[in-house]
Amino acid sequence: MEANTPGIEASAVVSVQGLPIASAMPAEVDESVVAAMTAAMLSVGERAAHELVRGNLQQILLQGDEGYIIIKGAGTSAIITVLAKTDANLGLILMVLKKISTKIGELLSEE
Q1: For residue 98, is it within any domain?
Q2: In total, how many domains does the chain have?
Q3: pLDDT for 27-76, tens place per residue?
């Protein structure tokens, strides 16, 4: 995904239980920590969307000084996390994430 979408620096697919499935993260990033944090943030985000009557959670977007973290569910058993640059085209990345998360969800439901 990083090679085909401008602005994406890294990505990971993790289970909803917080375990790594696949990752293209920088060497200094601990994949296990990313997986656990991603699952926890998605869980809290889903609860917040429900409690605040915002409907079903679509994605979580975090913005820091050095770029974005985007978290999106991928079917019922996986989550995709993307690190994006500060000048990234978020519309393009969200469109790509929607397609990829659907495909990942379909692939994992076949198992």
Answers
A1: yes
A2: 1
A3: 999 999 999 999 999 999 999 999 999 999 999 999 999 999 999 999 99
